[in-house]
């Protein structure tokens, strides 16, 4: 949720800074779903990132479902942001009747963009990116939440390899035992099987999603393939489907790291890591960091 160009490498420039309450919006850097993200400054020239809901999605007397989802993400980010690998929360509320979120300005790109262009940042800072993302996720879980939308697009990376986890719109409190969600929002390619099948889930769904993301960073492909979206999803939900080991596409991957990825991707949540702390420790050991 930091400052970067969109997935097509394009940027939108305002002809003149747009006043937005006490801020000036300069550049529309990403737009999709229900929100848009701008680079912004205040009267003192300080730089921020402003995320606001798109104008057509504002509710009337009652809040729209999009507004409720947006507000949920703001409140959970406010609760978990005090960590070096989570995007920093500054404020949220309404300006001109539009919900907004004020965040730190971070120069960089998201992992989806870096993977798409095989960016050398990935190989140069691979260990840091994997471990730091796992540590950020561990912090979120320790604070009593599960993210439920872990994917490359929601991990920002600076040119120096520092990461920030962002977009908490779908996050929920971490339950004591698996629960069913009221909705099944998210990105199917990164969903755990229990999430896809609308079964009870807990924080271990995040561990699966992180496994998909690690697999993609290491091989530049997802663990499930197929000729159609339907075929991919069937394989993702099939407990008998055997995921090709990452080393079959990249034999430079350490065996210990491959084993970690494959454990995260276990179909049965009970056979994944019980807690993310275990995952972090094994990544440190496998990558000697």
Topology (SSEs and partners):
Layout: E1 12-20, E2 23-32, E3 35-41, E4 47-53, H1 65-80, E5 89-95, E6 98-104, E7 109-110, H2 111-116, H3 120-124, H4 126-142, E8 145-146, E9 155-157, E10 163-165, E11 172-173, H5 193-196, H6 204-219, H7 229-237, H8 255-264, H9 276-287
Antiparallel strand pairs: 1-2, 2-3, 3-4, 4-6, 5-6, 7-9, 8-11, 9-10
Helix pairs in contact: 4-6, 4-9, 6-8, 8-9
Overview of the structural elements:
- The protein is an alpha+beta fold and 289 residues long.
- It folds into 2 domains: 12-104, Phosphorylase Kinase, domain 1; 109-287, Transferase(Phosphotransferase) domain 1 (Transferase(Phosphotransferase), domain 1, Orthogonal Bundle), CATH 1.10.510.10.
- The protein contains 9 helices and 11 strands.
- The strands form 3 sheets. The chain has a 6-stranded antiparallel β-sheet, covered by helices on one side.
- The longest helix is centred in the middle third of the chain and has 17 residues, at 126-142.
Structural key phrases:
about 290 residues, alpha+beta, Phosphorylase Kinase, domain 1, Transferase(Phosphotransferase), domain 1, 2 domains, six-stranded antiparallel β-sheet, three-stranded antiparallel β-sheet, 9 helices, about 35% helix, globular, disordered N terminus
CATH-defined topology of the largest domain: Transferase(Phosphotransferase), domain 1
Radius of gyration: 19 Å
When the domains are counted, the total is 2
Shape: globular
**Low-pLDDT segments, ≥5 res:** 1-13
- Mean pLDDT over all positions: 90
Query: What is the CATH class designation of the largest domain?
Result: Mainly Alpha
Largest sheet: 6 strands, antiparallel
Lateral arrangement of strands in the main beta sheet: 1-2-3-4-6-5
- Helix residue percentage: 25-40%
Query: Quaternary arrangement of the chains shown?
Result: single chain
Tally of helical segments = 9
* Span between termini: 27 Å
Can you write the helix and strand succession as a string?
Answer: EEEEHEEEHHHEEEEHHHHH
At CATH's second level, what is the architecture of the largest domain? Answer: Orthogonal Bundle
Secondary structural class: alpha+beta
- Which homologous superfamily in CATH is the superfamily of the largest domain? Transferase(Phosphotransferase) domain 1
User: What fraction of the residues are assigned to beta strands by DSSP?
Assistant: 15-25%
Q: How many beta-strand elements?
A: 11
């Amino acid at each position: 949720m930091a400052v970067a160009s969109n997935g097509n490498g394009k940027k939108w420039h305002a002809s003149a800074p747009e006043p937005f309450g006490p801020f000036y919006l300069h550049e529309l850097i990403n737009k999709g779903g229900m929100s848009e993200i701008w680079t912004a400054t205040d009267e003192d020239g300080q730089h921020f990132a402003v995320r606001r809901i798109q104008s057509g999605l504002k509710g009337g007397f009652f809040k729209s479902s999009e507004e409720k989802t947006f507000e949920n993400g703001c409140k959970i980010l406010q609760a978990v942001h005090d960590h070096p690998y989570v995007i920093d929360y500054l404020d949220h509320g309404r300006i001109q009747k539009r919900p907004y979120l004020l965040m730190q300005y971070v120069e960089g790109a998201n992992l989806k963009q870096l993977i798409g262009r095989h960016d050398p940042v990935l190989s140069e800072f691979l260990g840091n990116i994997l471990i730091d993302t796992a540590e950020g996720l561990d912090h979120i879980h320790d604070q009593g939440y599960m993210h439920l939308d872990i994917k490359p697009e929601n991990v920002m990376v600076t040119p120096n390899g520092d990461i920030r986890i962002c977009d908490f719109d779908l996050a929920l409190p971490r339950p004591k035992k698996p629960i069913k969600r009221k909705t099944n929002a998210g990105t199917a390619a990164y969903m755990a099987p229990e999430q896809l099948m609308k079964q009870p889930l807990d924080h271990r769904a995040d561990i699966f999603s992180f496994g998909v993301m690690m697999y993609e960073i290491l091989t530049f492909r997802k663990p499930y393939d197929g000729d159609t979206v339907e075929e991919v999803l069937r394989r993702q939900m099939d407990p008998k489907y055997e995921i090709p080991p990452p080393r079959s596409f990249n034999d430079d991957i350490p065996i210990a790291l491959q084993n970690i990825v494959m454990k995260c991707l276990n179909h049965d949540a009970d056979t994944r890591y019980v807690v993310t702390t275990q995952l972090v420790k094994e990544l440190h050991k496998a990558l000697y960091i």
